[in-house]
Amino acid sequence: MTSALLVGGAAISLATGYPAGAQVAQNDDSHMARVVPRAGAPESFADLTAQLQPAVVNISTRQRIEVSNNAGNPFAGTPFEGLFNRRGGQQQEPQYREGQSLGSGFIISADGYVVTNNHVVSPTGRGTVEEITVTMPDGTEYNAELVGTDPQSDLAVLKISRGAAFPYVEFGDSSQARPGDWVVAIGNPFGLGGTVTSGIVSAVYRNTGQGGAYDRYIQTDAAINRGNSGGPLFDMQGNVIGINNAIFSPSGGSVGIGFAIPAEIAAPIVAQLRDGVEIERGYLGVSISPLTDDLADSLGIPQNSGEFIQSVQPGEAAEQAGIRAGDVVTKINGRDVTPDQTLSYLVANIAPGTTIPVELVREGQTRRVNVTVGKRPSEEELRQQQQFNPDGDDEDPMEPGDNTVIEEKLGLQVLPLNAQIRRQLGVGSDTQGLVVAGVDQNADAARKNLRRGDIILSANYREVTTLEQLEAIIETAEDEGRDAVLLRVQRRGSQAAYVAVRLR
Q1: What is the dihedral of CA 70, 71, 75, 76, to 10 degrees?
Q2: Where is the PDZ domain (predicted)?
Q3: Where are the beta strands (DSSP E) in 54-181?
Q4: Among this protein's residues, is 154 annotated catalytic?
């Protein structure tokens, strides 16, 4: 995903008259009914553009960025690092350079409130934003006040002032958008102010796989490029149904896959930022992963029927309600958990302190618990939480061993934990399980980044301390027609996590 903005490319003009529509067979005879586009597809977008363009602005920042003095410092990263930056016994002053950022935005009120992306007005690296400038389509510049930002949704609100009223646009209802609807984007790609592009809605509520509560976008083929971030995506009634946010691009330029934050998500957040209201989001305190084919197979449940709980934070809402690692959450407050309506999204939009029912599957049984939703921590606090993320170091070729069933089916050599191995791995005597001694690089276990030194705590929710126990679980899984086994794996320095490994 490359941060970007919308637009870039030639405007589309349509020939008069409709193309031949798709043909649909009727039940009563062979007559074919013609399906034509809804009314509203224009011959030109010029009138709509003329009406909307005055409210779309260019946003630029001037930043003061600290430059590292450690280049060439042989003591960098050591306790003596500061000595290298001394001259004449005095610590050298930090060095700075000037930086800039460029993006788009749109005015939402006559008194000059402006919406854009948070990353458009955020400092770069070790920088400080010293000035934000909003440039109108006619070239008039205004100094902007930063009213509020929300990094989690990547939204920001600015304020500009003048004697007369500003032209402005309004949010529409993005929930009514359908794939195939016409959309128009106006913005400032590559600093080219007032650029207009058109396209269609390619998908609604697109989950890009980046994770987070707001990984839920309108996808469009309207050209989006760098500098368009924060610009509006309009429907044919001139309402803002999306805020251009990112593109998918191997090259860094538009390839026709752009993403906009839906208005139904953005509008309430913008209203809170504008009014100075603290944004509080719901939080369960769990680490989750999608219910992949392998996970579903290992659990014997349908795919896309929930999300998998990898770990539970001590003391948080989920633990207090009895939710455990290994559970599959299928419903939140009566709403199904799906790839388009993720657990993170549903919980984030529930007020902290609210008690809600949560439906989950545990060891094949459907359960229901009541959870009092907590308050979501800041992004910095979330980043500090450790997660299981194997780095996939290469292993030496696995030598043939004695645990034939485990090697053949999982591609793993395992050993029971003993006192010496525990000392080598730095784990206490209370840790029970099997340690991975080798991984077949041609097996699914290697693709899932299992490696030597990992400790298998359980398989299909059953603790394993002997090779015979693991072999029996594998054989049971095969008898039940399952194609994978769910392992709970502990790695040094990481939380225990579940990994579904395919049988072979």
Answers
A1: 50
A2: 280-346, 414-473
A3: 56-67, 86-87, 90-91, 95-107, 113-116, 127-135, 141-143, 145-150, 155-159
A4: yes
Same domain, 441 and 365: no
The total number of residues written for the chain in this structure: 504
164 burial via Cβ count (<10 Å: 0-12, 13-18, 19+): exposed
Q: Which residues contact 50 (CB under 8 A, 6 or more apart)?
A: none
- Domain CATH for 455: 2.30.42.10
Output the pTM of the full model.
0.71
Measured CA to CA, the distance from residue 261 to residue 215 in angstroms comes to 9
Report the C-alpha dihedral over residues 345, 347, 352, 354, rounded to 10 degrees: 140
- Pairing, β 240-247 against β 258-262: antiparallel
Per-residue pLDDT tens digits for 133-150: 999 999 999 999 999 999
Tokens of 372: 């009092």
Structure tokens at 63: 């930043």
383: helix, strand or coil? helix
Task: Give the chain's domain count.
Answer: 4
How far apart CA 327 and CA 23 sit, in angstroms, is 47
SS3 302: coil
Q: How far apart are CA 230 and CA 58, in angstroms?
A: 9
**List 60, 119, 150, 235, catalytic entry:** 119
Distance CA 232, CA 215 (A): 18
Q: Is 44 in the same domain as 64?
A: no
Could you tell me if 43 and 59 lie in one domain? no
Q: Rounded to the nearest 5°, which phi and psi values hold at 191?
A: 80, 5
**Which pLDDT does position 80 carry in this prediction?**
44
- Per the listing, tokens 């040094």 go with 492
What residues are designated binding site for substrate? 119, 154, 227-229
Amino acid at 225: N
Indicate if 229 belongs to the active site.
yes
The Cα-based distances of 167 to 108, 144, 179, 375, 473 in angstroms read: 8, 16, 30, 38, 68
Rounded-to-integer distance, Cα 417 and Cα 495, Å: 18
371 and 303, same domain (yes or no): yes
Among residues 148, 183, 209, the one where a domain terminates is: 148
* CATH number, position 227: 2.40.10.10
Query: pLDDT by residue (tens digit) across 322-364?
Result: 999 999 999 999 999 988 889 999 999 999 999 999 999 998 8
Residue 157 in domain:
no
Q: Using alpha carbons, select from 67, 216, 60 the residue that is nearest to residue 135.
A: 60
Euclidean distance between CA atoms 74 and 343, whole angstroms: 48
Per-residue tokens: 192:
């080219």
Pair 90, 233 in one domain: no
Half-sphere CA count of 424, side-chain side, radius 13 A:
11
Domain that holds residue 292: 282-383
Model confidence over 70-125: pLDDT tens digits? 555 554 544 444 544 555 545 556 666 766 778 999 999 999 999 999 999 988 76
Question: Within 303-356, where are the H helices?
Answer: 317-321, 343-348
Same domain, 267 and 173: yes
